[in-house]
Amino acid sequence: MASRLTDFTTLTFDCYGTLIDWESGIWDAMQPLIAASGRDDITRIPALAAFARFESRQQAETPAMLYPELLARVHRQLARHYGLETTDERDAAFGGSLPHWPAFPDTADALRALKRRYRLVILSNVNRAGFAASNRKLGVEFDAIYTAEDIGSYKPDPRNFEHLLARLSKDRGIGKGEILHTAQSLFHDHVPARAAGLANAWIDRQGLAAGGSWGATAEVPVRPDFDFLFPSMGAMAGAVSAGAI
To answer: What is this structure's pTM?
Structure first.
C-alpha cells in the first residue's frame, strides 16, 4: 500500500461519525423519550452503547430496510431496553432525525481543503434522501455517493465495499491502489475496508486509541491495522497541506 497521503487520488468516506456528529444527533433525538419518562438515570455513554448494539443487529437482520424505518425500530428497542413508554409518533420522529444531526465543526473546511487535491466519494449506511440532507452541511460536491439504499446492505457487509470498488473502477477508472478509505468506525468501515484490500485512514473522533469510549459504534474484538491515524478531519487536512507522511 502507499506510504504517503499524497500517493492517493481518491478519498472514500464514511459520513456519520466521521463528517457528521451522529452521536450528538442520536443523543439529542433521544431526549423526547427520556424527558417524557421523568427518568434522570439514563446517560449518554451507555445509551449510545445500547444504540450501537441495536443498530448493528437491525442492519444485519433487515439489510434492505431504509434507514429512517430502521432508526424507528431501534428507538422502540431502546425504549424497551430502558423500560420506557414510546409511541409510533415518537419512534417516527427519531427515525426522521438524521437531517438535524450536526456536522463536526472542522468538517466543511477540511473537505474543501482536501477537494483541491483528491476526488471525494461517500460510502454511507443511510438512504439517499438522508444523505442529501446532511450533504448540505458538508460544503463540497462529492464525486460519487453510494448509500445502503443503493446497495441493499449495510456496512460492514462486504458487498458495500465490493460495490464501491466496482463502481469506481467501471464508472471512473479508479483503481484500488488510488483509494484511501477515511472513516471513524472500526466496526462499520476499517475491518471491511482492510478485508477488501484498501488503505485506510482512521479518524479517531472518539479517542479510542487512547482508551476512549466506543460510543454509538459496535465494538470489534481485534483492532484492525490502519495506515494513517488522525484525531479529526481538520488534522488530516492539515497533514495533507503540509505534505506529511
So the answer is: 0.95
Query: CA 140, CA 234: separation in Å to the nearest integer?
Result: 15
User: Going by DSSP bridges, is the β-strand pair 144-147/179-183 parallel, antiparallel, or unpaired?
Assistant: unpaired
Which sequence positions are flagged as catalytic? 14
Angle at 158 between CA 102 and CA 232, to 5 degrees: 30
Q: Which residues of 161-189 are buried (b: 16+ CB within 10 A; e: fewer)?
A: bebbbebbeeeeebeeebbbbbbbbbbbb
CATH class of the 5-21+102-241 domain in this structure: alpha beta
List where CATH 3.40.50.1000 sits in the chain: 5-21+102-241
Q: Which CATH class is domain 22-100?
A: mainly alpha
Span of 127-131, 176-180, 199-203, 241-245 with lowest mean pLDDT: 241-245
Q: Write down how long the chain is.
A: 245
pLDDT tens for 13-53 read 999 999 999 999 999 999 999 999 999 999 999 999 999 99
Could you write out the DSSP letters of every residue in 7-73?
Answer: G-SEEEE--BTTTB-HHHHHHHHHHHHHHHHT-S---HHHHHHHHHHHHHHHHHH-TTS-HHHHHHH
> Could you read off the pLDDT of 51-102 as tens digits, one per residue?
999 999 999 999 999 999 999 999 999 999 999 999 999 999 999 999 999 9
User: With contact defined as beta carbons under 8 Å apart, do 71 and 98 qualify?
Assistant: yes
In angstroms, the Cα distances linking 122 to 73, 147, 157, 177, 213 are 25, 8, 16, 17, 25
Residues near 3 by Cβ (< 8 Å), separated by ≥ 6?
227, 245
